[in-house]
Design goal:
The chain is α/β, with parallel strands linked by helices. The chain is 53% helix and 11% strand. It folds into 3 domains: 187 residues, Alpha-Beta Complex (Conserved hypothetical protein from pyrococcus furiosus pfu- 392566-001, ParB domain), CATH 3.90.1530.10; 61 residues, no CATH class; 53 residues, no CATH class.
Length: 307
């Protein structure tokens, strides 16, 4: 699929632009029944932006929903709010062969089911499978509803399924290229670490630090210490640094110049990956790490802009 470089980030605002407060429609529904049905149907088709009430059982979840976990306690709280105030923002759906599929608003739909609503307010959109998946990912990211692993998997899906570059993904979701690259690196972590991140026991920053450790036994030990001792990211970085020094057993005389270390850190922030400067007198070399072909292409394009 050819994806435009502009992405769908800006189009998302238009998707929700008409999301005005919507309350329980029962009084209006009764009044509407007195009107000719054909006229109402015609008006609905003319305006794609009209809010329509759809049988909740005719709606199904989005198969490409990047969000895999839903907090049942929060769903219960939302359900109670819906019982009292109604659904404030319509659910965005698209037509399927039978019924409708959710594009955005699955949490509201789940809460409405729990509240035993028979109908829910919806905005119907005509979207392809590709647009549906991209909007689901972007909507969740803009609302910060995804845990770090779900976010990384969603971004990776945009690249693998639709052949988007990291630059296109960056523009679509409104995140920097280093942010995209660092997020994707989390997928290289073993499952037990990703599970802990998904459960909120480890942050994305913890994960980015753990991914730099090559020794799996050391990584597992540090992961367990983070959870048990509540170590901060800075404390973990220091711990990883100390482990690395012990392993290499470098003499004190060969400790890295603080100015060189500072430049390495600045380059790491700018490029979104580890940078190492090795000096031998006046000579030396700069090593830039990459973990995939996409990341290599991203770095090449970024370096070209510096010329």
């Amino acid at each position: 699929m050819a994806v435009k470089k502009g992405g769908l980030g800006r189009g998302l605002d238009a998707l929700f632009a008409d999301a005005v407060p919507v309350n329980n429609p029962e009084p209006e529904v009764k009044e509407a029944k007195a009107k000719p049905k054909k006229k109402a149907a015609a008006e609905t088709e003319v305006s794609g932006d009209a809010v329509q009430y759809i049988n909740i059982h005719d709606i199904m979840p989005n198969a490409n929903q990047p969000r895999k976990t839903f907090n049942e306690e929060k769903i219960e709280e939302l359900s109670k709010s819906i019982k009292e105030h109604g659904i404030i923002q319509p659910i965005v759906v698209r037509k399927k062969k039978t019924g409708y599929e959710i594009v955005a608003g699955e949490r509201r739909w789940r809460a409405a089911m729990k509240a035993e609503l028979s109908e829910v307010p919806c905005l119907i959109r005509e979207l392809s499978d590709e647009q549906n998946m991209l909007i689901a990912i972007i909507e969740n990211m803009q609302r910060e509803d995804l845990n770090p692993v779900e976010e990384a998997e969603g971004l990776n899906q945009m690249i693998v399924t639709f052949g988007m570059t990291q630059e296109q993904v960056s523009k679509s979701v409104g995140k920097s290229r280093p942010y995209i690259a660092n997020s994707l690196r989390l997928l290289k972590l073993p499952e037990y670490i990703k599970e802990n991140m998904a459960e909120g026991k480890l942050s994305a920053a913890h994960g980015r630090t753990l991914v730099t450790i090559e020794d799996e036994a050391v990584r597992k030990n540090i992961c367990e210490r983070i959870i048990e001792e509540g170590l901060s990211v800075r404390a973990v970085e220091k711990l990883v640094s100390e482990v690395g020094k012990d392993k290499k057993k470098r003499p004190a005389a060969r400790a890295k110049n603080p100015d060189v270390a500072r430049v390495e850190a600045e380059l790491k922030d700018a490029l979104g990956t580890r940078v190492t400067i090795n000096q031998n007198g006046k000579k030396g070399k700069i090593e830039i790490e990459f973990f995939s072909r996409d990341e290599l292409e991203r770095l090449i394009e970024l370096l070209k802009t510096l010329s």
